């Protein structure tokens, strides 16, 4: 592991590996774990080998000391070395998409392509002020949904009045099942250190737009039209700054759109992979 980027010791990340074939590295958002990417990996691992680490401070990659966003990159480079992955495609959701772009800037010779989900190189939100009632309803909705996933009464009574209304547009049982099985456990396993690292990066005014021209590999940029956490406009701005990108925006969806329109999204990813065989075929290099 080279020291030229960072003197921090890499954390040994917990990682979920599925399937065989060309490696796809999946990076989750905040709060999240490698398991939060099952909607992608259960599908992609039928043809490729998927690697989904718990980032430092998330899931089973425990970390109680303060760190910064660059430490995630140090960890991921060490992970690629440890698993002897020479080249890979990177899929990143939200925070994971930011890290995916950072990896492509840091290791251009190893990253063959990017699938960027609900993310931006200069992220902007349009989230209204959160009230105590929002937090209360969200807590109740999440708890009831965890006990009895996608219970219609809970969705109507609490879900649609909770902060979920900014994360999703389609209050369907599929979406609420994902929230119960993947979002709530991930939230409970996210360390304060991970939250601090993210917020300090946001407060410092994170903006990598001008650097995106250095990224040569193909990119697929996916967004939810009603996303309040990272607006679709800021995702579109990112797509426009990338040399070789394709843009897709899903109407009537928000930040958790992979859980709202999974079939549509996965077929768009498959189509993009068919059109860009070089990102998943080692022989093309």
Tally of separate helices: 11
Strand order of the largest sheet: 1-3-2-4-5-6-7
> What is the beta-strand fraction?
5-15%
Q: Mind telling me the CATH class of the largest domain?
A: Alpha Beta
Summarize the main sheet: 7 strands, mixed
Which sequence of SSEs, written as H and E, runs from N to C?
EEHEHEHEHHHHHEHEHH
What is the number of strand segments? Answer: 7
Specify the CATH architecture of the largest domain: 3-Layer(aba) Sandwich
Named CATH topology of the largest domain: Rossmann fold
- Would you tell me the structural class of the helices and strands? alpha/beta
Low-confidence stretches are 1-6
Shape: globular
Radius of gyration: 18 Å
How many domains make up the coordinates? 2
Fraction of residues in helices?
40-55%
Assigned CATH superfamily of the largest domain: Alpha/Beta hydrolase fold, catalytic domain
Distance between the termini: 24 Å
Task: Please characterize this protein's 3D structure.
This protein has helices at residues 38-44, 69-82, 95-106, 132-147, 152-157, 164-167, 173-188, 192-203, 232-241, 257-260, 262-275, and strands at 15-18, 23-27, 49-53, 88-93, 111-117, 219-224, 245-250. It is 40% helix and 14% strand. The protein starts with 14 loop residues before the first strand and ends in a 10-residue tail after the last helix. It is globular. The chain has two domains: 15-127 and 190-284, Alpha/Beta hydrolase fold, catalytic domain (Rossmann fold); 132-187, no CATH class. It is an alpha/beta fold and 285 residues long. The chain contains eleven helices and seven strands.
């Amino acid at each position: 592991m080279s020291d030229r980027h960072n003197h921090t010791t890499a954390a040994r990340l917990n990682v979920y590996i599925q399937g065989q074939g060309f490696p796809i590295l999946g990076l989750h958002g905040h709060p999240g774990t490698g398991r939060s990417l099952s909607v992608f990996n259960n599908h992609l691992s039928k043809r490729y080998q998927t690697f989904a680490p718990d980032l430092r401070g998330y899931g089973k990659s425990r970390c109680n000391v303060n760190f910064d966003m660059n430490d995630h990159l140090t960890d991921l480079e060490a992970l690629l070395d440890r698993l002897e992955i020479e080249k890979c495609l990177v899929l990143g959701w939200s925070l994971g998409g930011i890290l995916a772009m950072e990896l492509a800037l840091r290791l251009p010779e190893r990253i063959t392509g990017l699938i960027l989900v609900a993310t931006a190189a200069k992220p902007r939100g349009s989230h209204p002020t959160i009230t105590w009632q929002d937090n209360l309803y969200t807590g109740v909705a999440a708890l009831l949904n965890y006990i009895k996933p996608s219970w219609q009464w809970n969705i109507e009574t609490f879900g649609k009045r909770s902060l979920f209304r900014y994360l999703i547009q389609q209050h369907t049982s599929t979406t609420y099942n994902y929230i119960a099985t993947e979002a709530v456990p991930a939230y409970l396993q996210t360390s304060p250190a991970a939250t601090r690292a993210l917020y300090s990066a946001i407060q410092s005014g994170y903006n990598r737009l001008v650097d995106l021209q250095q990224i040569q590999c193909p990119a697929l940029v996916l967004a939810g039209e009603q996303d309040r956490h990272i607006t679709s406009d800021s995702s579109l701005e990112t797509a426009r700054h990338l040399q070789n990108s394709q843009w897709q925006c899903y109407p009537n969806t928000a930040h958790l759109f992979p859980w709202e329109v999974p079939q549509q999204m996965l077929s768009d990813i498959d189509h993009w992979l068919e059109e860009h065989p070089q990102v998943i075929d080692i022989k093309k290099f």
